[in-house]
Amino acid sequence: MVTCERFEQDYEAWRKGELTTEESDVFQKHLDTCNNCQHFAESFSTLRQYLVAMPQQEPSVRFKYQLNRKINDINTGDYKERSFVNVFPRWAAVGAGIATGFTLALVVIILNIDSGTNNTQMMADKPKAESHEQFASNEIPDSTVQNSDTMNVPESNYRLDKYSQAVSSEY
Amino acid sequence: MTLEEQIKKTDEELIRELQNGSKDAFDELVERFSAPLLNFIARMIGDYTIAEDLLQETFIRLWVKKDSYREIAKFSTWLYTVAGNLAKSELRRRRFRRMLPLSSGSSGFGEDDDRCFDLPDPNSDPEKDHERRNIQRRLDEEISKLPVVFKEIIILRDIQELSYEEISTILKIPLGTVKSRVNRARGRLQESLKDLR
Ligand SMILES: [Zn+2]
User: Fold this and answer.
1) Per-residue pLDDT of chain B (197 residues; tens, 9 = 90+)
2) At A133, is the secondary structure helix, strand, or coil?
3) Which one, out of A38, A76, A92, B27, has a CA that is 20 to 30 A from the CA of B13?
4) Do B136 and A53 touch (CB under 8 A)?
5) Residue A47 near residue B119, CB atoms below 8 Å
6) How many domains does chain B have?
7) Are residues B52 and B142 in the same domain?
8) Which chain B residues contact residue A96 at CB under 8 A?
9) What is residue B191's three-state secondary structure?
């Protein structure tokens, strides 16, 4: 039996008379009854010869090495999947960034309204506020070493770590 | 087990061994499918470097999700589906980023006469290698401009030489649709190459 695939594959050989008489008869019978192959024979046989002969590239030499390293990492639990930025389109990342910024701004505003009544207490807290500025400018004087814990630095870093972990484990 | 014994195995035997934890079986499957899948992905997205990353991702999914393969479909169609989905996600991602100029969607085929032999016979003259290479380069260009549905089907059928049945499984469309879509894709391609002669 000749299928359409077989017909397309052996069409050239058939055209050049390279098939046996028996095969040739079966081919002709298929062509007489199959619209698909009639269309192929009339229009696309040359195009297909080119397409079948299109050059195929091999993977680079580092491909297998990198793949094996990733498989090893998966097996040992060290595998880090593709990063958030790579997986999601940039507009999604920008959108998420804007949404996060907006939420943070809202939280800050609400906190400010909340603590508006305690303004006098905040003024009394001035030395602590200074240490925030110093932190921002990356200058950490000796006097602040003791109260660095109150600046939430380790905690905020910890949160960022947790966030990026959550993001990477989500994918 | 010798390398020769490994090579003789069917894909389905190898995936069964892989499901039982054989890294050798995995390596043999990588060996068999690396080049065809790389070329499939690369022609889909038009970039060999990113195609190689997606190929890595395909095999990583094979390793991680090996147990989700059930022997109701040929293994190759399962793997092509994974690779094709990754390639299409990449195309979608690029479309969102507006980095890739997609096909203008001109519909020359179907309305005009496509029954013409525009291309020179590739076997006509063995010395015409240069011309052949030029045509192949041009073909690659024109394939990259095809809409995704035509592009994937022409790569699978005419470059990768998968059967209509296999393509039907990979793309989850009926056999008749595969055949008509292949013909429409060929028609589009032929139409775009009309000036070659
Ligand atoms: Zn047929």
Assistant:
1) 677 877 789 999 999 999 999 999 999 999 999 999 999 999 999 999 999 999 999 999 999 999 999 888 899 999 999 999 999 999 999 888 765 444 433 333 233 333 333 466 666 666 677 888 888 899 999 999 999 999 999 999 999 999 999 999 999 999 999 999 999 999 999 999 888 76
2) helix
3) A76
4) yes
5) yes
6) 2
7) no
8) none
9) helix
